[in-house]
Amino acid sequence: MGRRLEEELAQCRDVKPEKFCGAALKFGKCELPAVSASCQKTCGLCKEDDFAAMSDSEWEDAAGSEAGGKSGGASMQESGETPASEVLAMTSENADAAMSEHSLLLVKFYAPWCGHCQSMKMDYIQSAADLAAEAVPGAKLAEVDVTAQETLGAKYSVQGFPTIKLFVKGEFSEDYSGERDAASIAQFMRDAAAKAEGHAGEL
After folding, report:
1. How far apart are CA 127 and CA 17, in angstroms?
2. pLDDT at site 20
C-alpha cells in the first residue's frame, strides 16, 4: 500500500470513524467488528486502492445504510429532524448523582470506534427524547464513553460494546438484551417503570 493511500485511510479512520466502520460493515469486507489501531494491518478492505477513492456522498450512503433500517433512525430521517439529546453523558464525577436523581437509569457503555455503537446512536437519542416527552416516571437514558471513563467500565465489568445496563434506585438490575431500535428501548423503560410502580403499590 502506498504512503498516500495509508494517509488517506488513516484520515478516514480518525476523522470519520463511524463512516469508515459503517462502510466497512456495509460492504462486508471488514474482518474486524469495529475500527481499531490494527485495522489497516489486518483488514482486507484497507488494502484496496479503490476504496480510498469513494466520494463523500458514497461514504454517507454506506454508513447511513448500515445505521438505517431501524424504526427510530428511519422516523428521524423521514421527518428531517434530529431531537435534542436527552441522553446524559455519565462520568466518574456525576455517576453517583445520576444514580440518585434517576430511579430508572439505563446506561449504554460504548467506545467511539465501535460500529455497533454508532449504528444505534440515533435510536438511543430518539428513545431518550420519547421517554422525556412522555415523562415516564424516573426514566433516564445515559451513556459512558469507556475509553475516557475506564474506571466506570471496570466498575461495572464491561467486556464488550455496546453494553447496556439498567440501574434501579442506584443498584444494578439487569442487562438490556433487546433490540437496539428506539421503539424497543423506550418500551423496555416503560415496562420497567410500570414494574417499579407496581412494586411501590404493594408496599
Report:
1. 24
2. 52
pLDDT greater than 90 at residue 95: yes
Which listed residue (22, 72, 73, 115) is catalytic?
A: 115
Domain-by-domain residue ranges, the chain? 3-67, 71-202
CB 4 within 8 A of CB 10: no
Instruction: Catalytic residue, from 28, 116, 199, 201: name it.
Output: 116
Label residue 45 by pLDDT band (50, 70, 90). very low
Annotated active-site residue 116? The verdict is yes
State how far the Cα of 128 lies from the Cα of 162, in Å rounded to an integer. Answer: 17
Catalytic residue among 21, 72, 117, 153: 117
* CA 113 to mean position of chain CA atoms: 10
The confidence score (pLDDT) of residue 51 equals 41
Question: Above 70 in pLDDT, residue 199?
Answer: no
Whole-angstrom Cα distance, residue 113 to residue 161? Answer: 10
Is 115 known to be catalytic?
yes
Least confident of 18-22, 109-113, 128-132, 184-188: 18-22
Name the active-site residue from 12, 39, 46, 114: 114
Superfamily of domain 71-202: Glutaredoxin (3.40.30.10)
114 catalytic? Reply is: yes
Q: Is residue 198 very low, low, confident or very high in pLDDT (cuts 50, 70, 90)?
A: confident
